[in-house]
Amino acid sequence: MDRSGKTPWRPPRACSDYLSEFKHCKSLLNRFHYYYTYGTLPSCEQWKEDYNNCREWENHRGTDVKEALQRSERNRVAEQRKFTPVWKLRQDPPRDWHMPLNQEKPQDF
Predict the structure, then answer these.
(1) Domain-by-domain residue ranges, the chain?
(2) How far apart are CA 29 and CA 24, in angstroms?
(3) Which of 45, 54, 66 is nearest to 17 (CA)?
(4) What does the pLDDT look like over 80-104, one tens digit per residue?
(5) CB 55 within 8 A of CB 61
(6) How far are the Cα atoms of 31, 37, 64, 78, 79 from residue 82, in angstroms, in the given order?
(7) Is 61 left (phi over 0), alpha (psi -120 to 50) or beta?
(8) Exposed (0-12), middle (13-18) or buried (19+): which is 52, by Cβ within 10 Å?
(9) What is residue 101's predicted lDDT score, i.e. its pLDDT?
(10) Taking Cα atoms as reference points, which of 84, 87, 105, 86 lies closest to residue 96?
(11) Considering the chain, what is the average pLDDT of its residues?
(12) Membrane spanning segments where (predicted)?
């Protein structure tokens, strides 16, 4: 806690996490996999920029780098939420969930 009694703001991740993500993104194996999957090379600049902003925050506590890190993390979370789930999630368990499974009868899928 600082003098005002508030917990000081910290980046969403440790700076070393941003650097690790950048190194992974630039790795030959990841670039090959990404190219095979998507047909283009991955853009790793956001990880590099986030790392630099994190280091800048640690050294100078600038509000502009704080906002840039928050914006980047919000964009990353929004990007992950764009995809629909593969499986339909149940709201309730099946009616016969407590019954023993019939091992001889094939299950309906």
Answers:
(1) 16-77
(2) 9
(3) 54
(4) 888 887 888 889 988 888 888 776 6
(5) no
(6) 23, 18, 27, 7, 5
(7) left
(8) middle
(9) 79
(10) 105
(11) 88
(12) none
